[in-house]
Design a protein that fits this description.
By secondary structure, this protein is of the alpha/beta class. Helices cover about 35% and strands about 20% of the residues. The strands form three sheets. Strands 3-2-1-4-5-7-10-11-12 form a nine-stranded mixed β-sheet, sandwiched between helices. The relative contact order is 0.10.
Length: about 425
Amino acid sequence: MKKITELERRVYAIELYQRGKGFETVIRQVGRCRSWLAKWLRRFRKEGKAGLKDQSRVPHGIWRKTPAALVEKVLLLRDALEAHRTRRTAFSGISAEAIQWELGRQRIRKIPSLRTIERILARHGRTQRGPHHRSHGGGPPYPGPVAKQIGDLHQTDLVGPRHLRGPHGVTRFYSFHTVDVAGHTAATSQAPDKQAITLCRHLVQAWRSLGVPVISQMDNEMAATGGGRYPHSLSQVIRLHLLLGVHLLFIPPGEPGRNATVESFNGLWQERVLHRHSCPTLAHLRRVDRRFSRYYHYQKPHRALRHKDQGTRFPGILRDRRWKQLAHLPQQFQLAAYLDAKAQIHFPVAKGKVAWIRKVDGRGHIDVNGKTYFIRRRLSGQYVMATLFTHRQTLVIKRDNERIKSFTFPIHESRISPLFSFGTARS
């Protein structure tokens, strides 16, 4: 038996209806519903038998299609930003966000959305995949701090050693970076070494620029920890934090992702400053770095800042607006007061606390400041917080805010009161 086509079914239904058959009789005989018959009757009355044929579903016009002139403008901007043709765009990126920002600066009407710009770039082969960042999700609970507002948490890291090639040879240097996690402001400095005094100078400079944080977070760089050569010793960087009343926190060894904010800034700085500009000397690099800092703070909208939440997308503007709410170092505090005759820095030990986040190894141990402590074997693979209270000479171990052990941490020096109480005043 020949199978009836859909068009033949529609023609047959119309013929039955024209012969005086009722709706119920027609839909029962053709095996369709009332709305189906109503639709094709409406088409037949309007267009005759031609209306019973399937119509093309392709829209007659794409009313939301981006104008060709605007597409061309987006592509030209993308190429211009990649070439870095002007001093103003010397540090710009080539992302959809950077292109959207440039369109706004040029007062283009009806600026397309980020998603539309991304589609245009993809359609014309102008996309660029960024680096893949490993996620820490799904692992054991991590007791790290959460930055809710500007000034809560700073992350500090260094890039280097790196090298500059100039007419007078090769210059070896390090770049020190501190970033406010909530406000995304950044302070940078470059030096030929990474000694403790150099890191201390950078921190003081950063705190004068960004404000003094409640918590200062770092990795286990020897300049910061002292290398743990002598058990129960405290590095000059640790002493600086204690003296100024700033809570210093060390992340677990081998987990740079715990400093993700400053690590991300490191990548941006190297891409936009070090790889893009030829700097023959350290002085030249510092001048370029200052230009980048102005661009980063006042010309580059930060993707983590939103108008509806912070009132601006620029880290520098946010810092300026919140400046009076931040803690600040008094001008009378100078590192020179703690230098000896050989220009070596020596800070006293102040009352306060410094902490290390550590992952318990397979034998139940953690290492803090060069000394091994047995915690519990059953906590293997878990994170704990080891906090040294200098005034009590006690190292307290906590997991999930529960105290599980404590150890004596002898300090063979008298402890003074901190000069300031920034963290206490804001907590």
